Amino acid sequence: MQVRVLFFGVLKDLAGKASDSISLPENATLGDVLSHYEEVIPHLKGTAASLAMSVNQQYAGPATRLRSGDEVALLPPVSGGLDRKNVAGGRSEHAAIVREAIATASILQGIKRPEDGAAAVFEGIVRNHTRGRRTLYLDYEAYEEMALKQMEGLAARALAEYKIRDVDIVHRLGRLEIGETSVLIVVASAHRAAAFDACRWLIDTLKRTVPIWKKEHFEDGAVWADGEPFPDEIPSTQGTHSEGRASK
Question: How far apart are CA 4 and CA 142, in angstroms?
Fold first, then answer.
């Protein structure tokens, strides 16, 4: 059977391409895919323990069985002005992925309602330094379809678990200059405590779980930013990928 494999962030650099197609035996697993690329991509074994994987835009563990035509993604740790009715780029009910500048004031104005007593706003901004090195600009990329689903899922969880009325999550992709906004979260509620709590939870969880990566460009080179480890609820490849191999 044939499956399509996608690479992102530093894995795309290691593979020398963004996607691949491989033939696998029937009943093959994600663990078989990982084992294949550990053999053909130099240095992948050094990073495999920190990876997550997905099948058809859903996180999955190494034992997951595959079917012909599946879309598999190898995912390194994620790095850590919106018209709600008309957005360029991907958009769902509460989340958007865009390539133009994020207009915070417009989004904030669009979400507020007379019954709200608070609107909490978080902006992630491109700073001019990282670990003592001068940053020139950043490049963001994403597994867009999966990222949008994950962002919408976070919004749904926040609405269910916190006493808030509405939320907007917007992330920008492409080249961002110093001082530009990379991610915006706006939460509206009757009371400030719920808005603050939900906003903090949303950005902290987004930075650990949504498949978006950034490449930092410095005066002396460029590197993919180190991401935080995936949380426990996301299946890991560490120490388990060989257990999921199918019998051949």
Answer: 17
As a whole number of angstroms, the distance between CA 30 and CA 61 comes to: 7
Most distant CA atoms of the chain, gap in Å: 63
CATH class, 2-77+230-244 region = alpha beta
111 and 188 Cβ atoms separated by less than 8 Å: yes
- Whole-number pLDDT of residue 92: 65
CA distances from 215 to 52, 120, 230, 246 (A): 19, 28, 19, 36
Task: List the domain boundaries for the chain.
Answer: 2-77+230-244, 90-224
d(CA 161, CA 90): 25
Rounded mean pLDDT, 124-149: 94
Identify which of 165, 203, 162, 209 has the alpha carbon closest to the alpha carbon of residue 183. Answer: 203
Instruction: Report the alpha-carbon distance of residue 115 to residue 96 in Å, rounded.
Output: 24
* Single pTM value for the model: 0.79
245 has a pLDDT exceeding 80:
no
* Distance from C-alpha of 123 to C-alpha of 175, rounded to nearest angstrom: 17
Residue 95: both structure tokens together: 């989340």
Question: Considering only CA atoms, which of 147, 127, 122 is closest in space to residue 138?
Answer: 127
**What is the C-alpha separation between 45 and 106, in angstroms, rounded?**
46
- CATH topology for 90-224 is Aldehyde Oxidoreductase; domain 3 (3.90.1170)
The answer to whether 141 and 213 have CB atoms below 8 angstroms apart is: yes
